[in-house]
C-alpha cells in the first residue's frame, strides 16, 4: 500500500472513530461518572495497552531520548489531556453534534496561527473563509433563529478543546514527525495520565465502585475512540501532512451528528445543519489553497 493512500485510509478511519466518541462519552456519563472519572480509567487502560503493543512491535525504539521525552511530555500535558478534558467537559453541557462542530473550528485556529506567527500572507479568499466559518458558528448556535439556549460554559469548553487540538496537530508535525505514531500515542497518553492522577486519584476504582456497564463503555472509549483513531491520526499526519488530514477529519461532524440523532435522540435543527455545512466549507476553502510542502495548513 502506497504511503499516500495509507495516509488517506488512516485519516478517514480516524475521523469516523473520533465521530463516535461523543455518543460513548454521553452513554458513560449516564452511568453516574463525571469527565475526570471517565478519563482517568480510560487513560489507565490505554497506557497499559499502548505500551504493551509498543514493546512487542517497537522493542528497540520504545526508549526515547531525553529531548524527545520532553517533547512527548509537552504534547501529552498541553495537548492531549487538556484537549480531552475540555472535550469531555463540553459534553456535560452541550449536545454531541454541537460539541463536535465547535471542536472542528480547529483548522481555522491553525490558519490564524500560521498567518500571525509564520507571517504567511493573508489573501482575500482566506478572509472570506474565516467569515463564512464565523457565520457557520452563529447558525450552529441557533443565534439567528432566536433560540440560543446553550450553556456558555459548554461553548467555552468546546472552543478550548479546538485550541488544544490545533496545538496537537501543529506540534506533532513540527516536533515529532519522525517518531513512530504508536510510541507518540503511548508516551503522550502516559504523561496525560500522570496529570489526571495528580488532579484526581481514582480511589473509587480500588473501592470497586465502577459498574460493569461503566467499565465496558470506558473500554470502548479507550480502544475505539482513543488508541486506534489517535494512532491513525499521527500516522496520517506523517504520511500526508496536517493539511489534508484537517480536510478529511471534517467527516467527524456528520458522523457525530448522525449518531447523536439516531442513538441518543438529540435534535438537530435545519439551522445547525446549515451551520455545519458552512463550517466544513470554510475549512475546505482555507485548506485547499496551494501551500508549500512544509506548511502546516
Word description of this protein:
The protein is mainly alpha-helical and 297 residues long. The protein has one domain. Helices cover 76% and strands 0% of the residues. It is globular. It starts with a helix and ends in a 10-residue tail after the last helix. The C terminus is likely disordered. It holds the Pfam family EamA. It comes from Clostridium oceanicum. InterPro entries: EamA_dom, EmrE-like.
Topology:
Elements: H1 3-29, H2 35-57, H3 66-91, H4 96-103, H5 106-117, H6 124-140, H7 152-175, H8 181-199, H9 203-206, H10 212-248, H11 252-262, H12 270-287
Q: Give the fraction of residues assigned to helices.
A: over 70%
Mean pLDDT: 82
Estimate the global geometry from the Cα principal axes: globular
Number of helices: 12
**Relative strand content:** under 5%
Rg on CA atoms, Å: 19 Å
The number of domains is 1
Count of extended strands: 0
The arrangement of helices and strands along the chain is HHHHHHHHHHHH
Q: Identify low-pLDDT runs.
A: 290-297
Structural class, by secondary structure, is mainly alpha
The biggest sheet, with number of strands, parallel, antiparallel or mixed sense and barrel status, is: none
Protein name: DMT family transporter
Family: Belongs to the EamA transporter family.
Pfam family, one: EamA
Keywords: Membrane, Transmembrane, Transmembrane helix
Amino acid at each position: 500500500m502506497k504511503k499516500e493512500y495509507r495516509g488517506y485510509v488512516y485519516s478517514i478511519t480516524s475521523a469516523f472513530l473520533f465521530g463516535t466518541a461523543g455518543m460513548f462519552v454521553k452513554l458513560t456519563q449516564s452511568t453516574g461518572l463525571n469527565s475526570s472519572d471517565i478519563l482517568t480509567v480510560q487513560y489507565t487502560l490505554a497506557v497499559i495497552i499502548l505500551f504493551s503493543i509498543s514493546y512487542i512491535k517497537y522493542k528497540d525504539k520504545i526508549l526515547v531520548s531525553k529531548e524527545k521525552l520532553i517533547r512527548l511530555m509537552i504534547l501529552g500535558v498541553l495537548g492531549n489531556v487538556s484537549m480531552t478534558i475540555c472535550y469531555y467537559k463540553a459534553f456535560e453541557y452541550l449536545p454531541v453534534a454541537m460539541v463536535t462542530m465547535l471542536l472542528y473550528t480547529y483548522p481555522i485556529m491553525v490558519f490564524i496561527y500560521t498567518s500571525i506567527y509564520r507571517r504567511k500572507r493573508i489573501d482575500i479568499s482566506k478572509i472570506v473563509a474565516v467569515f463564512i466559518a464565523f457565520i457557520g458558528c452563529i447558525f450552529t448556535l441557533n443565534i439567528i433563529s432566536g433560540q440560543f439556549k446553550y450553556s456558555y460554559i459548554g461553548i467555552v469548553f468546546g472552543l478550548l478543546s479546538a485550541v488544544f487540538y490545533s496545538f496537537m496537530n501543529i506540534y506533532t508535525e513540527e516536533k515529532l514527525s519522525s517518531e513512530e505514531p504508536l510510541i507518540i500515542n503511548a508516551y503522550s497518553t502516559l504523561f496525560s495520565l500522570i496529570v489526571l492522577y495528580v488532579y484526581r486519584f481514582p480511589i473509587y476504582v480500588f473501592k470497586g465502585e465502577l459498574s460493569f456497564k461503566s467499565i465496558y463503555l470506558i473500554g470502548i472509549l479507550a480502544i475505539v475512540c482513543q488508541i486506534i483513531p489517535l494512532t491513525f491520526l499521527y500516522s496520517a499526519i506523517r504520511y500526508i501532512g496536517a493539511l489534508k488530514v484537517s480536510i478529511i477529519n471534517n467527516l467527524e461532524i456528520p458522523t457525530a451528528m448522525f449518531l447523536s440523532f439516531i442513538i441518543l435522540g438529540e435534535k438537530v435543527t435545519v439551522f445547525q445543519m446549515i451551520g455545519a455545512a458552512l463550517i466544513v466549507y470554510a475549512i475546505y476553502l482555507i485548506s485547499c489553497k496551494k501551500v508549500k510542502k512544509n506548511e502546516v495548513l
